[in-house]
Amino acid sequence: MLKNFFIVTLRNLWRYKFFSLINIVGLAIGLSASLVIFMIVSYEFSFDQFESDKDRVYRIVLDMNRDGFEGHSAAVPAPLSKVVKDAVLGIEQAIPIFSFPGDTKADVHINRSEDKLVTFKKQEAIVFTNLDYLHLLNYRWIAGDPPTALIQPFQVVLTQSRASEYFPNTPAADIIGNRVTYNDMEVTVMGVVRDLNQASDFRAKEFISLPTIEASSLKGDLMFDVWDDWMSYSALFIKLSPQATPQQVSKELNLLYNKHKKKESYFSKINLSLLPLADMHFDNRYQSADFRIAHKATLYGLIAIASFLLLLGCINYINLTTAQASKRAKEVGIRKSVGGAKNQLIFQFLGETFFITLLATLLSVLISPLLLHAFTAFIPEGLTLSFLGNPEMIIYLIFVTVSVSISAGLYPAFILSGYKPVQVLKNQQLISFGQSRQTLIRKGLTVSQFIIAQFFIISTVLISKQIYFVLHADMGFQKEAVLTFNTPRDTVDIHRTQIKQRLAAMSGVAMVSNGFTSPAMEGGAFSNITYQNGSEEIKPNVQVRWGDEDYFRLYQIRLIAGRQAIQSDSITEIVVNERFTKEIGFQRPEEALGKFIIYNDKQVPIVGIMNDFHTQTMRAEIAPVMFQGRPGNTFHIKLQSEPSDWSKVTASIEKIYKEVYPEDDFNYEFVDDTIKKFYEKEQATAALLRWATGLAIFISCLGLLGLVIYTTNSRTKEVGIRKVLGATVMQIITLLSKDFIQLVLIAFAVAAPIAWWTTHKWLENFAYKTDISWWVFLASGVGMLIIALCVLGIQTIKTALANPTESLRDE
């Protein structure tokens, strides 16, 4: 029986090669998209699922509030890590993690008895921590004595990959006792552990003992004794004892913090919270340079896209299979006439669907590497195609193959197996079938396909329109052809002056300024400002910028009133923007001139008012800004040459930089590229939607083609009779096409309001946004209609031009 099943299946696949190919390709596209998306989603949700007692592990985070403005920080005051375990009941382990501040240079002493050094610049993934960190993550030791490692100052444990990088071709046991100098701090290697092979946000590769901080000059840099402030370098994890509750521990943490803090904070309320380890990878309120945050909404969006594409593939298969009903009807009639049972026929047709789905699954595995290009922006670091060998992926492939086979094959199997032998053999089945409710179902499925395709088209156009708007909108300052680069922190004034003079004299350079960041930056640089208006204190949330006397001219920031602030290493006067003056209560900006604000316990006058400009993305309103006249470590260069010559100019700039800082790398960025990075997530979403739209249109058109083939096959004799009676080709084409045009229009009528509502909700994330223009819907609808007409023309023109004698000769 199985042999007969395979013979019949292969025979039908070969007999209907065109339909079989379309079915396989349509399903393969949906399956490959779902495979790649499952790979991404599964990887993201697998983060930090392997730690011991992970349900009892929490990260201590900060929540802040000031006049309704909420702030969140993944960092905590550094001294909390020293006292929390002993001062708070219910904490089993305290695991502080301090990232090495700034750029880290590692000088590796290759031989214990010699001073031969190998230097590694800008090493990353170096932390100060304790032995509990290694216990939490279940690191396996290769060499060293765990009880004595990370106990004393100036000890370090390396992962196997970092040990191999520092000491190539050296047995792990021989690495113990060697020395590594981080900047000016020398430590001794006390152990080597295996690298983690699980997905984790704990990505450190070098673990320096925590007591090293207090025994070195880094104690001040990391604010190890400061309770009233914190730096992004400082993180603290705790493991609760089995009987402790997060609520109880959180309450005691805040009592401990309030006991030690001394001065009033910028925020009126600061609260320590416990963030579960399971939520750490997804909670974007607590951003951290060392821990990557995934966006759950994006992952759910990817799942939705995969589901839609799979659904389209299944609908497409149903339409194409039922469209071939006329060619399989007599086969069914003969099988039933010779004793074939309905269950056997259902098994036959489901088996054919399974075989086609299996071929599509195999094809999807092959084309998945090509489809990865569509999801490049969503593929996290560390995820590779080797992940396809994971048992979870094999289980998923089996599950999705069976599910799609049943979903796509069940309806056609029952329809085809339900034919009555007498009617089929008398050629009456198709007449009744053409008027049956199955026709309405098939049309409904086709409408569903075009609703999804039309939704993708409208959403893609509107999102792309918003991205174009934010990238080309007036930011309030000059952003084109401006290059910035940073100098080391220890840059002295004489070096700044020399560099600026030499850059200004270069060919291709229009202007040079020195100061802080460009007017717009990711994140923010805020300052604690107070204005006393006589009756109350006003504390606006102020962004801070500073620069020399050329900063305004270079960025074309206009002074509305007053003058620029004088240049000084200490703040003596400031310039503010229009929004700042409104925040402190003035209707006309110039009224704020001469008023004093309190900054760092010092009264500073406002001497100038500048125009408003965007300091961050257009998701947020324009913020109050305070500008100081003082130098900084960032150079801003306005180029005057054509873009084709910029590579020569940047090479000359790098030459000057290297002459002053020969050991430092030269890194630069154009301001407009910086602004583009603000919207990387939106651009990635638009790119993904473009791919999804293309695939949805392709699969939907295949489904439409199936319905056209079915209709033209069932109306062949009608067309022949009409042509004999004098109908023209255009009349026949119009007759065959009008019903399908109605389906496309119905789909547009349903998809348009859904797409409008969805994009409207998405645009609410932006304070400044484009209009949802009527022409977007018109263009999208007309575009889909034209595509549908092209697909219709493939079959309707062929049918209209056919010789009527061919369709009528058996009457």
Automatic annotation (TrEMBL):
Membrane topology: Multi-pass membrane protein
All residue ranges annotated as the ABC3 transporter permease C-terminal domain in the record: 304-418, 694-800
Signal peptide region: none
Stretches that traverse the bilayer: 21-43, 297-318, 345-374, 394-419, 440-463, 688-710, 740-760, 772-794
Subcellular location: Cell membrane
Pfam family, one: FtsX
Alphabetical list of InterPro entries matching this protein: ABC3_permease_C, MacB_PCD, Macrolide_Exporter_MacB
GO cellular component, one term: plasma membrane
UniProt keyword list: Cell membrane, Membrane, Transmembrane, Transmembrane helix
Keyword RNA-binding annotated: no
One GO MF term attached to the UniProt entry: transmembrane transporter activity
Superkingdom to which the source organism belongs: Bacteria
UniProt domain MacB-like periplasmic core: residue ranges: 20-254
Record bears the keyword Methyltransferase: no
Protein name per its UniProtKB record: ABC-type antimicrobial peptide transport system, permease component
Species of the source: Olivibacter domesticus
